[in-house]
Amino acid sequence: MFWKPxxxxxxxxxxxTSVDDSNSSNFxxxxxxxxxxxxxxxxxxxxNYRNNFLYAVETNSVTVVVGExxxxxxxxxxxYLAEANWASNNLKIAVTEPRRNAAITLASRVADEMSSxxxxxxxxQIRFENAISExxxxxxxxxxxxxxxxxxxxxxxxxxxxxxxxxxxxNINTDILIALLRKIIKQRTDLKIVLTSATTDxxxxxxxxxSRVQGDSDSKITCAILSVEGRNYPxxxxxxxxxxxxxxxxxxxxxISIHENRPQGDILVFLTSQEEVLSAVKDCRELVRKLxxxxxxxxxLPFYGSLTTEExxxxxxxxxxGQKTRRIIYCTNIAESSVTIPRIIYVIDxxxxxxxxxxxNSGLEIVIKSQISRASAVQRAGRAGxxxxxxxxxxxxxxxxxxxxxxxxxxxxxxxxxxxxxxLKAIGISNIVKFNFLxxxxxxxLCKTLEVLHALNAIDDKADLTTVGFILVEFPIDPMLTxxxxxxxxxxxxxxxxxxxxxxxxxxxxxxxxxxxxxxNKMKFKFAAQEGDMLTYLNVFKFFEENxxxxxxxxxxxxxxxxxxxxxxxxxxxxxxxxxxxKRLLSSNDDTNIQKCLLSxxxxxxxxxxxxxVYKTFRDNFDLSIHPSSVLVSERxxxxxxxxxxxxxxxxxxxxTVIESEWLLEVASHYYVNKFVNS
Length: 679
Known about the structure:
Layout: E1 13-14, H1 37-43, H2 50-59, E2 62-67, H3 73-83, E3 92-97, H4 100-113, E4 122-126, E5 129-131, E6 138-142, H5 143-152, E7 159-164, H6 172-187, E8 192-197, H7 202-210, E9 223-228, E10 235-239, H8 247-261, E11 266-270, H9 274-290, E12 297-303, H10 309-316, E13 325-331, E14 344-349, E15 352-359, E16 364-371, H11 374-382, E17 390-394, H12 398-403, H13 418-427, H14 443-455, H15 467-474, H16 479-491, H17 494-506, H18 517-527, H19 533-546, H20 551-556, H21 561-579, H22 591-602, E18 606-609, E19 615-617, E20 623-626, E21 639-647, E22 651-658, H23 661-672
Parallel strand pairs: 2-8, 2-9, 3-6, 3-7, 4-6, 7-8, 10-17, 11-13, 11-14, 12-13, 14-17, 16-21, 20-22
Antiparallel strand pairs: 1-10, 4-5, 15-16, 18-19, 18-21, 19-20, 21-22
Helix pairs in contact: 3-4, 5-6, 8-9, 13-15, 15-16, 16-17, 16-22, 17-19, 17-21
């Protein structure tokens, strides 16, 4: 049983003790909302520390700013630096974010506050997209984008300050970037580094930058820590009385209950994946339509990583709905930090998220659903305290919260290191083992990665980058897919491989039908290829092009128009990058050539159907099943390759293509020569 607002509350409550709780149950809208943007900036907690911050940057190589959600770190620090002329003499200020959505929305907000057009004084730079000019002073970008700049400009000579935001998330690119910045500032004493976070261990960062390691001369790096007060308003925390058996259903029911019983304010619901978000949005909209005389209008919106810019506007632009319309927003952990969705007063936290984990034995990176950390729970609750007294509802017990790990393990300890190794090698780091990481990756992960990269011909016997390896680094996609693209000229199917790769970047090309899953499956099989999912995506995109990219035709055939447009944009950028290497864009109608070409990059992800009813990988006999969304779910092809593994009760293969066993020795004999292929 879960307590719902409007009934007597048996739940334990954990109050925010940093502020006065006497009026915490009252709803108060942002009292500064009618002020000018300039006046609102001065009301943020970090404004009181402006001079302290600028002095710390002036007198230290590295400044660590620790401030809770709502303090204004992400938007104000870059402006303070620009106002202090750190972006003069044609130098810029780089601000890195872990997610592309955060980079776009923060750049837009700061541009508004600086009374500038996006792309002028303030811009953004992300994978496959940018809005910057020669006059840009503040560049919001993803960690990965800045890493690519380091490959071209190892000392980041066009930047005066690099701000690494949301350090606590510790994704792979963030860890690599921090480690490289430590090396860069030893050569560029004029470069300033600012690290910001709400929950990170500031002392650990200080020790990392200031301590000496083997091979270092006397370290002259100085580091200051600045602590900023937290959110503007208290947040009341409510726990479940007992474990919730179905958090998806509970989150929908609770959001409707809050809408009917609680005062004005928008609701933000954290779920684990795009699929869950879309399912919840559909079900919630149906329940909203059944409400009898609701107290106010309500709009239900989704928010996840691959959402298009147009759809994002609906989440951030509150003028579209007005103050009298309550919004219920279902999101993934993309809204956990950096991105601030306006008007949020109520947060519902399911307590789970999706993480990648690397199996060093099989060499597979598996996406699993796992319990979040306490730090993530605090971040999620903090979303409710930005514009008024907030309320956070956790769909787990207080005892479960106490048993959570303190912080989410860094991505570098549980992910494939292929991209890490390629980037570091390209930058000139020859000995990866001795490289000074903030958190060293497991040695067995590194060994497996080197084996795979050698099989892809990305590194030679001495573990140095080959010509192929240098090209793999240039493409902002998975190295295995890039290898298939490089081999596509040999198989005469470049156009088709480019389309498939672009479609794999957006996922979910089909939309849910209000008439149920059977209708969707019926429509999906109109495009289904007997060769599997990847060639089905090819059929979908060709249909999209043949019908002049019509939105109405997409709607009729249950195709996701926005995602197909995004795939089209990615396709054009990949074509442009591919042509730089003087490669020809060839096309083939022979599906066998396309299958072999895909195998040339994804040969590591090959599996065969076992007599026990499961699939097993050739090299390591790792058990797998076909994902229910695959067009092959009712088939049992003998041999397949796949692009991704999703873990739950079983490990599911996604994006599957049928192959023949003899192709493994033809295309990847160097990897399978010692294995009995015809298992």
